[in-house]
Task: structure prediction
Amino acid sequence: SLGRVDMNPNYLALKTIFEVLDANNVSSKIYYTDWTLGLAVSFIAKRSKKFLFFFDDFIKDAKKNKLPAFSFVEPRYNDLSTPGEFFGASDQHPDHNMRLGERVVNDVYQAITSNKQTWESTLLVITYDEHGGLYDHVPPPETVNPGDKPIDSTVFDFKRLGVRVPAVLVSPFIERGTIIHDKVFDHTSIIATARKLFIPEWEKSFLTEGDRNPKTFEDCLTLATARTGKVKFPKQTPEPPSTHLAAASKKASANSSRQQLNDFQQAMVFQAFQADSTMLPGNTVAAQ
Result:
């Protein structure tokens, strides 16, 4: 949803929906917890004070009806522990606690619905970047080549979508219990919907052929007036004692410290170094 990053691994030079919206004076923010891919994109990293905010800021902005036109909310990706406390990852990747991811969704929903104006002007899209790893009986449909493939990249032509991922649209203007069977959406539908809603000549503002003409979400809002009432979630089950979780995390950290960092972890370290050396005032990088 930051762009067709699967097609172009040169993240620093990547053009994203945030840059397109900004060029059209449309506000947008990334609300994150411990890490965001936005730090890997030069346009965003150089303008961190404008685009990067913490998850707590999202809660405050939603309650005060001060959300930007486009908000991208990210969970916590890493298990972090401190003496006496535990901050579990909420991204729902194995082997993280699924309940913590559900809690993030609940927190977002509660914040949006706490303000009537926010609730009646917001479309909440809950989706994932990949599927759950189970067999899917529906063959992946065809799509268009985005057209931004580097010359030396794989010979795969990207003319077919992958496995289906969950997507839930939440709005008081959607009929309760709606299930959409007759349209094929993909991740670029998020980009296209934002362009269509907020940019006057939106047809000319596409990033690649991939987000030029996908199905968009606005037609899913079919009600003329907002539904009333809120979803009542069941009471949460008690959390395991934090000391047990912290101990487990400490043991896992000890084991992982003897292993090499994987590509993803190396990228996170590099982005943290880049952010620290270029974004913080007064910082300089000394050659070693």
Observations:
- The two ends are 37 Å apart (CA to CA).
- Residues 98-113 form the longest helix (16 residues).
- Strands lie at 28-32, 52-54, 70-73, 80-82, 85-87, 124-127, 167-170.
- DSSP finds nine helices and seven strands in the chain.
